[in-house]
Write a structure and sequence with these properties.
The chain has 363 residues and is α/β, with parallel strands linked by helices. The protein has 14 helices and eleven strands. The chain has a seven-stranded mixed sheet with strand order 1-2-9-6-5-3-4.
């Protein structure tokens, strides 16, 4: 069992606990009083397939809970689904001592956290991520939110979980496409922060794709460790935390234009990272030899290196102009200086954006 202590301040502290078949060996969950009302937000697949595993453990711990099911996919991160969740909480007379449990991937984690953050001005919630993407990224750091047709995660809040329980066992039912999608974020961490981890991924990516337990455990632990270090320095994304958005400015444009869910988050970020690298090269900030290493690693992970054929460079611009990192109508981008280090660049001109996308299409 691997444990990471996330320390943000004297109030916001929590543990990330990582293991394979964690819910067979863990003897306690976040302390829950027997009178506490608990609601689990999940989907029908997870409810059906883990009834004799996860729910059995909750019953052994004498935790009383209700289950609220939401549909699969990014379309569930909507005002409509949010309203249904809040209505269910009110119908169950949940109060400020109540707890939400997110049992699912990033979509479920994001909307559960956002619901917890706004219900009666904030209640506790627990993250139990079940996809590789959510285990190494979205379940950690307290970013919650829902989508708008004009932009991804444009409605949200910072609200830290009380605990994060990462059980690698849940990955056994994950489609290969979703494993690859999660690896995009792992590759991102290595590019922006840790060259040794990048080299490790170059040597071990096939093991992860084949769900080798020890390789997965190390990869997840390493990603969680990097993210927890960054957010402990900058919880509300006023500085260094912005580097976690490497590839996301272009990637979110792809997701929004294509329609949420047609390209996975990881696929969109993967292409977005390669376009960001073209920006770095254009600004004389990055070596082409590093670009080729990154491209080869992304291809090994079965991820795209170019944006969708349906998008031309001008299609990206409306979404990029609405990016949350922008200030005073000036485009901000995260670009790498080398493998293991990224920088924040302000006031990127529209012409540079268009040039970078064109270079990605043509090279």
């Amino acid at each position: 069992m691997k444990i990471i202590n996330v320390k943000l301040d004297n109030i916001n502290k929590y543990k990330i606990i990582i293991d394979y078949k964690l819910f067979e060996i863990i003897n306690s969950l976040y302390p829950i009083n027997k009178n506490t009302k608990v609601m689990i937000i999940t989907n029908n697949f997870l409810k059906t397939n883990y009834e004799n595993y996860f729910y059995k453990k909750l019953n052994e711990l004498n935790i009383k809970y209700n289950i609220f099911l939401i549909p699969d996919g990014e379309s569930s991160k909507s005002l409509n689904i949010l309203n249904l969740i809040l209505t269910e909480m009110l119908n169950n007379n949940m109060d400020r001592n109540s707890i939400l449990i997110s049992f699912g991937g990033g979509v479920i984690g994001d909307i559960t956290g956002f619901s917890a953050s706004i219900y009666q001005r904030g209640i506790k919630f627990i993250q139990i991520p079940t996809t590789l993407l959510s285990q190494i990224d979205s379940s950690i750091g307290g970013k919650t939110g829902i989508n708008h047709i004009l932009g991804k995660n444009m409605i949200g809040s910072f609200h830290q979980p009380s605990s994060v329980f990462i059980d690698i066992f849940f990955l056994k039912t994950l489609p290969k496409r979703e494993i690859s999608s999660g690896l995009a974020e792992a590759i991102k961490y290595s590019i922006i922060y840790d060259k040794k981890f990048f080299i490790w991924l170059e040597n071990n990516i096939e093991k992860i794709l084949n769900l080798d337990i020890e390789s997965l455990k190390y990869c997840i632990y390493k990603c969680c460790k990097i993210k927890s270090k960054i957010i402990s320095k900058d919880e509300k994304e006023n500085g260094i935390r912005s580097i976690l958005n490497f590839g996301h400015t272009y990637g979110h444009a792809i997701e929004a234009f294509m329609g949420y869910g047609k390209w996975t988050h990881g696929e969109s970020i993967s292409a977005g990272m390669m376009i960001s690298i073209e920006t770095a090269i254009y600004l004389n900030n990055f070596s082409k030899k590093y670009k080729n290493r990154i491209k080869n690693l992304i291809l090994k992970a079965n991820l795209p290196i170019k944006g969708p054929n349906e998008m031309n460079p001008n299609n990206y611009i409306p979404y990029i102009l609405k990016d949350k990192k922008n200030k005073n109508n000036k485009i901000k981008l995260i670009i790498p200086e080398k493998i293991g280090k990224a920088v924040i660049v302000d006031n990127i001109k529209k012409e540079i954006i268009l040039n970078s996308i064109n270079n990605n299409i043509n090279n």
